[in-house]
Amino acid sequence: MCEFERQLETHASATMSTGADWISQHDLLRTDYAMLAMTSTVFIARIGVQIWRRKPIEAQDILLYIAFAAYLAFTILYIVITPIFFKLQALQAGRIAPWPTMMEDIILAAKVMWQSGMEYWTCLWFVKFSLLALYKKLLSGMPKKYLWIWWFTLIFCVVVCKSSRRFVFTHIASSKQD
Length: 178
Prior knowledge:
With 178 residues, the chain is mostly helical. The chain has a domain at 24-138. The chain is built from 5 helices and no strands.
């Protein structure tokens, strides 16, 4: 191993051991709130335009509503557990002592991280399904081969979504038995 690789490895391990030193809790929460406000503003504007143009609610709209609800859930969950992670980082660095509810906070953070991950993937999948519903609408009048491709894509997405969720739940259940 050359000197550069040793220095890189030392720097990487030091960076990994310090956790979130690259951003402060205040800056991270400000970013979360800004993204939440921006996304909510765009979403509300979209609903306002839909009402103003008197357009009926379609399948892609309902799927986007579900995606937005999942986005709200995982963003709020991250906001809730952010202080816990920064306290754990301070504990690891020796700046604070263990606190009385530390184990309960760690358990809460673990549960919230798992749930927020599920909400994140739900958000992504429903955005994908919303786009597929929009594409289906745009495919009307097109040659049938495009409709077959759309159906193949939809079935593929449903199978991957279902199997990935089944894998996660099966993995979690088997890890609890160990």
